[in-house]
Amino acid sequence: MGYGYEYTYDYSGGNSIGDSTFAAVLSIWLIVLMVSFIFWIVQYIFQGIGLYTIAKRMGKKYPWLGFVPFARRYLHGDLAGEIRLKEKSIKNPGIWKLVLPIIAYVGLMVFYIIFLIAITMGILLGAASRNASAGGGTILIIIVLVLIIALAAVLYDAVYKVLCVLIDFQIYEKFTSRNMAIVHAVLSAVIPMYEAFCLYVMRNKEFNPGMEPVLAPPAPAPVPPVSPAVPMMPSADAESVSRTYAETPAAGGPAKEENAAGTAQDNTTATPSCSENAAEDEQKKTE
């Protein structure tokens, strides 16, 4: 008489726990990503409106750069103007704020390439020599490169933050007191979204006395060509001329009539004398 035993094991419970944990972590990550994106959009819009309004009030040529990615960094620095330090000055802070991230990105790419080359060379040398010292040297190079990258990142972040604080200080100082401008500039570098809301709030404030922008006068409108006007005679002069013309005898007018009358009278006077002479001649012939 034989006995058979069958055993079955169900591991579905462990898999379901792992799947649910992964789904929960993914959901949290998506929620955090969505919230961060919404905050970024809000910050972008409010900062763009603030930069655009202030640039327009200061008479900048292209205020719409406040809504253009990367170009808004240049506009932000351009609104501050020249930053005067104790012995030196930053003449174009907008260009520096635009160029510094590009320099940092290029430097990071160079360090990344050097890092990959160092790892590859260390692995190849360790495999060829089969020596533990080669592997240790590779690890030491990697540690040094990581420290250099970390130090460069900290230095870049400090320089960029200081530049942003100086730019914000010069902008805020146009609308508020010096002490409050320092406070707002420092908080803008530390607290996310503070700078965007601060620019938005100050965009319509009155400029402090002596901080008003020097606006160029508007260009005069072109004058259309006008044909030369015919000079008009005043009414008094016209009346005097007409009166003089009326009083002056016209050619062949009364003067001619007087001459004609005198001639007719002479002819009339002369006619009897001729007839008398003819009568005397007849009388002499008769005698």
Automatic annotation (TrEMBL):
Keyword Transmembrane in record: yes
UniProt entry tagged with the keyword Transmembrane: yes
Highest taxon of the lineage: Bacteria
Ranges that cross the membrane: 20-46, 98-127, 139-160, 181-202
Ranges annotated as biased composition (Polar residues): 262-276
Keywords, ordered alphabetically: Membrane, Transmembrane, Transmembrane helix
Chain intervals for the UniProt region annotation (Disordered): 234-287
Name assigned to this protein: RNA-binding protein
Protein's organism: Candidatus Mediterraneibacter stercoravium
